[in-house]
Design a protein that fits this description.
- The complex is a heterodimer of chains A (262) and B (359).
- Chain A has 262 residues and is mainly alpha-helical.
- Chain A is built from twelve helices and no strands.
- In chain A, helix 1 crosses helix 12 and helix 3 runs parallel beside helix 6.
- In chain A, 33% of the residues are buried.
- Chain B is α+β, with helices and mostly antiparallel strands and 359 residues long.
- Chain B folds into two domains: 229 residues, 3-Layer(aba) Sandwich (Rossmann fold), CATH 3.40.50; 119 residues, OB fold (Dihydrolipoamide Acetyltransferase, E2P).
- In chain B, 23% of the residues lie in helices and 36% in strands.
- Chain B has eight helices and 19 strands.
- The radius of gyration of chain B is 24 Å and the shape is elongated.
- The relative contact order of chain B is 0.12.
- The model of chain B has no long low-confidence stretch (mean pLDDT 90).
- The chains are: A mainly alpha (262), B alpha+beta (359).
- The interface between A and B is medium-sized, with 21 and 24 residues.
């Protein structure tokens, strides 16, 4: 009986993982398809689609753009999120609960709405669409996330440490830069890497707010319009691999840091 | 470096709670002062006001003759050693101790040298590259002390720094604190609720209760001549015996207690001279019931019966019934008190303190 229930549990878990990862496995598998259609049957394995994407200048430029936007917009979102979290955690602000709710609220708004809203604002201000506007869009999307993660890690036990720093002569910016931020480094890094992975494969805002220079998801989308071929599978696999790489880096830095500072 | 501190009529009100009620205190340069009292007595509030973390609702603070009432903590000649140490978890000991010097713009080489010398002072030079989490509680304590002293404060404020340590380590740290204070000469203001700790380290103890100062003096004078019921009860054990003044002459006064009339020297009245008809309280330390020598003036409170006793190492702690009163006596460790045995309640006349408050 016990044996059976263990077996059923294992089966259930297996099916769940299959359900989650089957699309990715299929995508990656058919990126090696020796043939021009990424559908069964698998005719044989080849690396020529990878060769094709790495020699595709437009695709590689888009990949570079994506990385640039992801890293810079995440850094900005983290700095802004940290400053906001510091203010809410350390000062008594009027209507603090409401203001805090408002900062986090955009998380619940669909990116389509945010993208369209930003697009009309940019039209009014006359700012030209570019990677910068895509970056601004990603800051808007990721700021609530960064704020929430960093704010959650600001506890009362750090207050006395900051007090000690001030007592020893540190100014406010020195307290933040030399004491608070290093103490919160694990959660700041977690926010940063999570934000990077979100920005990395964000499509809607990037599509709406870009024109000539585009990010990778937008470039892949325009590839798809000309029909399926294993090249899209190959670039999809690369996107997936880089996402995983960010997550692994995050796991390692964050876990190593928290393990050390506790 | 060192400086005197003067607190004038300091009051702090939180909402409807008077945390500090018209407190005035003068601290001499280089003195080791202990603020002693139960939690909520205002001792930590007073310390925070000295450190600049809280501004008094009214009253003034001056340090070294300069008004500091509205000066920020960073710009005061004080540093605080916090109860939870508040070390910087991401910095090694050298950087922790050197932090204040770095904030003062001191160059790296000079700063490190000074940090090392203060780590030396607390015996942790060899661990200078370690992080705080690698240290024991007592070691963190020492780093916090070194960090606070490294900036040469005129006044060091210590907020129950030994509270988290076990008894043995606490005793050891008390001795070390005292020794280091003597060496550096800085004025120390130390907050604690532990009366033994206060006696172990203080030059003068300030007993506080309900936002007010109850008593100020050397450990011996506060223990032997307490000036309030609270002070007598908080510093060690005491028997309180209600009494009424029946007669007063120049050098002597007669009081009536439930255990009979006794004549006491006028010097026993520590808080005001005796007035006939006034309700007062006799304060008797339990160890004073030990047989007094016949060649000094003694008073007798009749006889008491031992209703129970326990051995405490340095003494036997006995409960006595005398008339309606229940008393506590500490008898010498060499005695063998038996429950039911009777005891002569005779004690030196000058060991009794009379307080002008009814119980």
């Amino acid at each position: 009986m016990r044996h059976l229930s263990t077996w059923l549990a294992a089966l259930y878990a297996g099916l769940i993982y299959l359900f989650i990862f089957l699309p990715v496995v299929v995508l990656v598998l058919f990126s090696f398809q020796d043939g021009s259609l990424p559908v069964p049957p698998l005719n044989g394995l080849t690396l020529r689609w990878y060769e094709a994407i790495f020699s595709d200048g437009k695709l590689m430029a888009a990949l570079g753009n994506s990385l640039l936007v992801a890293l810079i917009s995440s850094a900005v979102a983290c700095v802004l999120g940290f400053l906001a979290a510091y203010a809410f955690a350390r000062y008594t602000l009027p209507a603090s609960g409401l203001l805090r709710g408002l900062i986090v609220a955009p998380m619940t708004v669909s990116t389509l709405i945010i993208g369209l809203g930003l697009l009309s604002i940019l039209n009014i201000t006359g700012l030209r669409l570019s990677l910068v506007t895509v970056g601004i869009g990603h800051v808007v999307i990721n700021l609530p996330l960064c704020f929430a993660i960093i704010y959650a890690s600001m506890g009362g036990h750090q207050v006395n440490i900051e007090r000690a720093a001030r007592d020893l002569g540190a100014r406010d910016w020195q307290v933040m830069l030399l004491v608070t931020a290093p103490m919160l480094l694990p959660s700041i890094l977690a926010a940063f890497f999570l934000s990077v992975t979100f920005s990395w494969d964000e499509f809607i805002v990037a599509f709406l707010l870009s024109r000539f220079d585009v990010t990778l998801p937008v470039e892949i989308w325009s590839m798809l319009r000309s029909g399926l071929d294993p090249k899209t599978n190959a670039i999809g696999s690369v996107v997936f691999l880089i996402s995983i790489a960010f997550l692994v880096v995050m796991e390692f830095t964050v876990f190593r840091k928290t393990g050390k500072s506790s | 470096m060192t400086a005197d501190v003067s607190i004038r009529n300091a009051t702090k009100v939180f909402g409807s709670f008077r945390a500090l009620d018209d407190v005035s205190l003068d601290i001499a340069a280089g003195e080791f002062i202990v603020l002693l009292g139960p939690s909520g007595c205002g001792k930590t509030t007073l310390l925070s006001i000295l450190g600049g973390f809280i501004e008094p609702t009214s009253g003034t603070i001056s340090i070294g003759g300069e008004d500091m009432t509205h000066v920020s903590p960073a710009r005061r000649p004080t540093t605080t050693m916090f109860q939870d140490y508040a070390l910087f978890p991401h910095m090694c000991l050298r950087d922790n101790v050197g932090f204040g010097l770095r904030m003062r713009g001191m160059g790296k080489a000079e700063r490190f040298e000074k940090a090392f010398s203060y780590l030396d002072l607390v015996g942790l030079r060899a661990s200078s590259a370690k992080k705080p989490h690698e240290l024991s509680g007592g070691q963190r304590q020492r780093v916090a002390l070194a960090r606070a002293l490294a900036v040469d404060p005129h006044v060091l404020l210590l907020d129950e720094p030994l509270g988290a340590l076990d008894l043995k380590l606490r005793r050891q740290m008390q001795d070390e604190l005292k020794a280091i204070q003597k060496r550096v000469g800085t004025t120390f203001v130390h907050v604690t609720h532990d009366q033994e700790e206060a006696m172990a380290i203080a030059d003068r103890i300030v007993v506080m209760n309900k936002g007010r100062i109850e008593d100020v003096g050397t450990p011996a004078s506060i223990y032997m001549r307490p000036r309030s019921l609270f002070s007598a009860g908080f510093m060690g054990e005491a028997n309180f015996l209600p009494a009424k003044v029946r007669g007063a002459s120049g050098s002597e006064a007669e009081v009536e207690t439930a255990l009979g009339r006794v004549a006491l020297p006028a010097s026993a009245f520590v808080s005001g001279s005796p007035a006939v008809g006034k309700d007062v309280t006799l304060c008797i330390r339990p160890e004073h019931f030990r047989n007094a020598n016949a060649d000094v003036p003694t008073v007798s409170l009749g006889r008491g019966r031992i209703t129970g006793s326990a051995f405490f190492g340095t003494h036997h702690r006995c409960h006595l019934a005398a008339g309606d009163a229940v008393l506590t006596a500490h008898l010498p460790q060499t005695d063998t008190p038996q429950t039911g045995a009777e005891l002569d309640l005779r004690l030196k006349a000058d060991s009794i303190v009379v307080l002008q408050e009814g119980v």
